[in-house]
Amino acid sequence: MKKIGIVILNYMVYQDTIDCVKSILQQTYKKFEIVIVDNCSPNESFKRLTNEFLIANNIIVLKTNENVGFARGNNIGIEYLMKKGIFDVLVINGDTIINQKNYLEKLDNLSLEKNCGVIGTKILSADGYNQNPIKRAILSMADVNNMIIHHLKYYLFIFFFGNSLTFKFLNRKREKPDIVIQKSHILNLEEEMLHGAALFFTKQYLEKIKGFYPETFLYMEEDCLAAICQSLNINQMYVDELEIYHKESASSKMIYKSNSRKIVLKKIRFELKSSQVYKELLMKIKQNESIC
Fold first, then answer.
1. Phi and psi of 192, rounded to 5°?
2. Cα dist. 119→65, 89, 107, 178 in Å?
3. Which of 85, 129, 209, 242 is most exposed, with the fewest beta carbons within 10 Å of its own?
4. Distance from C-alpha of 278 to C-alpha of 220, rounded to nearest angstrom
5. What pairs with residue 54 in β-bridges?
6. Beta partners for residue 9, in sequence order
7. Buried b (16+ CB within 10 A) or exposed e, 59-78
8. Given this model, what pLDDT does residue 33 score?
9. How far apart are the first and last CA of the chain?
10. Rounded to an integer, what distance in angstroms lies between the CA atom of residue 85 and that of residue 89?
11. Cα separation of 76 and 68, whole Å?
12. Given pLDDT bands bounded at 50, 70 and 90, which one contains residue 165?
């Protein structure tokens, strides 16, 4: 029985993170260590989390000096665990709940191929739909360029036409996705990739790449991960028998609750920057440059 490391990145929504950890503590599998990384939250998060788990000997709370984004924030937790010799790491969002009591036990008992590097499981959203795996649509330089143009057009549209349209966009009713019957399988990375709300990195992956591609701040982490796995011939695997519940983007809802044009424009700038980072990553892969 190996020790599993668990990384949870917190930004402002400490109660969600506490609920997530409490669900993990109910697991039948007890050989785990949890690292909570508070991403320099501008509220009481670090203090609340530290006090909540002060006497737990398998939970540590770290804090970054600044908001370093999703990828680097999680990588801090992964690096901490790897220094302790833990190379099987589950990275989950703080707004998830593991209701399946034997989730970790079954994860540990999976029979894996030698080159299986990242595992994802069923992720049930608030409306009961499985979010995993997700369609991979941005594969080529042309795809990225088209996406950048789309973001630029959207940015200009919001910039000139104001808050009312922004409010309508953010509060529009989203179409429910078709129900797809999934089976456990190795992903075809030309067509699909794992959702970032819950990713289990195996030793086979972490011995080559130390977590997420660190150059993104927010958005496209899954695309970068899929591109890296594909370039290194590392498989991503989806396991349908395991599931978690995903409340969905609680910290983002807190940040965007004002529905202001300023906030939406900032979001689009993050998307543009991540698109450019992804484009640069694809160029590195094409030119066989180091991506570690």
1. -145, 165
2. 30, 10, 9, 23
3. 85
4. 7
5. none
6. 37, 93
7. bbbbbbeeebbbbbbbbbbb
8. 98
9. 29
10. 11
11. 10
12. low
